[in-house]
Amino acid sequence: MIDLYTLTTPNGRKVSIALEEMGLPYNVHKIDITKGEQFTPEYIAINPNSKIPAIIDRDEEITVFESGAISIYLAEKTNRFFSTERKQKYQSLEWLMFQMASVGPMFGQYNHFNRFALEKIPYAIAP
Ligand SMILES: N[C@@H](CCC(=O)N[C@@H](CS)C(=O)NCC(=O)O)C(=O)O
Asked: What is the pTM of this model?
């Protein structure tokens, strides 16, 4: 059984979708990042970077944070969505890294400056 520490954000949903698609049973633990619950000592012991998502795989007592690392962990656990054939495996890794390093952070920064920043900075939100 997997314990999932998450909230309904894009990075959180990424792991929920993976767990559903892979048919793995899991318990959800809501970490309300709007209330600072990611900064409790209990949660920092799970993810020292104080961000959701994170999982604990109780079958093996393995803790994993970072949605990309969790995706690889779950894919390897279930032998799904991650080929062992090298060419296909690196194609999967390319797109995973592209999402993690390019699309995800850019959308996250845009969302922050567009919706939450106390100061509106035109350069940061211009299309
Ligand atoms: N690279 C991380 C990003 C995680 C992340 O930014 N999580 C956000 C919610 S989507 C969070 O926990 N924010 C709380 C904070 O920054 O205090 C991943 O992919 O898991």
From this structure: 0.94
